[in-house]
Fold this protein.
Amino acid sequence: MSVNIHTIKDIRFYLLKELDKIYREPETSSLINIIIKTVTGVSKLHQLYNSDEPVSKLQVERIIEISNELKTGKPVQYILGETDFYGCKIRLNSETLIPRQETEELVHLIISENRNYRGNIIDLGSGSGCIAIALAANIPGSSVTGIDISESAVSMAGENALLNGVNVSFLKSDIFTLNNKTVGKAGIIVSNPPYVRDSEKKSMNRNVLDFEPHRALFVPDSNPMMFYSAILKASETILLPGGRLYFEINEVMGSSMIELLGSAGYRGINVIKDINNKDRIVKGIKDV
């Protein structure tokens, strides 16, 4: 296909035309800003004030490739191989979920409540390492460990830690067999485990179902809290008395999670709503 792209402005017009029927505004504009920044290396502000800046043939070819991939429904984060998360650059692969805004809210809560914390933090089901890396970057007195069952995810998380200049240990292990001999003890445990019930697949977008790793998303309807129960069991030996536990949860699980943490001997249990007013975070303190 012959295209007439010579400047940053031409890229914007081309992508607007190509993506117009696939995405809505302002999503299209946001996507275009991200794509241009990734391919050309220039900021959004630079794009606005230097729109006539020329682009190379290789850059044009990459723009066309990205546009064609977007038309298949593939998320832009996987196409570009990276995303931004709480001020950190996070690389992704097919074994790692795309970090969501709700998870940034979880991280923000932990940082705001533990900024001066000095001790161990364990992130269970760490995936790309986004939570662990953001915590290590913003709670400098802490020592952070991330655990995931996927070798590929652990490898990617390690690369992300180096990319962001933070010291995080990532280990391959199964949440269902985890104990303090594997990871030691910690004063904070955080997890964003799989929590979408299989029956909810029918209401999800195809770009999620077709491209994101299902084992990092879905749980059976017959046992939707299986990961939380396993983490609470592991926390019996891993989490120190008085330690804090933070979970991201399915919006329908709020009251069930209060009961689950209460039965496991936690106090100060709170369910916190996300920016969309949905139950999204539960926290509790391990009883002494």
Remarks:
- The CA atoms of residues 266 and 286 lie 5 Å apart.
- The two ends are 68 Å apart (CA to CA).
